[in-house]
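Worked example 2:
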Amino acid sequence: MDAAPYVDFTRDEWSTLRAATELTLSFADLEALRSNEPIALDEVEAIYLPLSRLLSLRVEASRELFAATETFLGHLPPRVPYVIGIAGSVAVGKSTISRLLQALLSAWPHHPRVDLVTTDGFLFPNAVLEARGLMSRKGFPESYDVRRLLRFLGDLKAGHPEVHAPRYSHLTYDILPGDEIIVRQPDIVILEGLNVLQAPTTRAGIGEQLVVSDFFDFSIYVDAEEQHLQAWYVDRFLSLRETAFQDQRSFFHHFTAYSEEDCRVIAKSIWEEINGVNLRENILPTRGRANLVLEKNADHGISRVRLRKL
């Protein structure tokens, strides 16, 4: 990471890059967007408004390049979405950041249509994972239908009028059969997931050259120390025990019969045996491939921003 060609910004240095960008979100809007992690309006102003300005400028620059190429060739297929990938560990706050950027980017005048897709929908169904002995590896690279994800992104970048993605339920912890997300040529697509920055791998001596990040126009890695991530995961698990897990349809409903202390022990065990292993082996090694790294401190606030040089 230290050898990568990044420009480092402190929180204060980054916040000045907001320029005259106005905040379009209210406190109520922010409450509706966030998940379990805290986030304040001043955090939005200091970190995410400058980021939305940077992304807006890059989207406009890509359109100018598209127009220049069209002038050279005389004609081009329909304009395709600008794709932003957001990666990072379980419990780091990717979902909230993705929804926040979706809302902020939608407020810019030239790209109001911003769609958000998560790679959860491209997990293999539980029945497949169970048949392959992969239920305890859910979230690891091998638990995803990568071919289907690559096909989705390929169709998106080919300018297809409609592109379909499977829908995932965090309640049932499985793919919803027959339910899909339909993406209809938006201006921007945000793809959020654990392993979206995976590098090419080699299987049976054959190098796989095409990877998910090949379709990205910009990528973000949300970073934090593992001790903070584990604490946030345990806190989220205990919070869900009092909320979503109470629904009898929930895959995790049985945990409501356990005491809070027992659930704390279980959550720590899940982290140590699954999420922490996935972080160290598969997710963290991809950090240096991102265009921008957001570094969080213990209270979820961004302490440093690292932007890759062009």
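The chain has a mean pLDDT of 91. DSSP finds eight helices and eleven strands in the chain.
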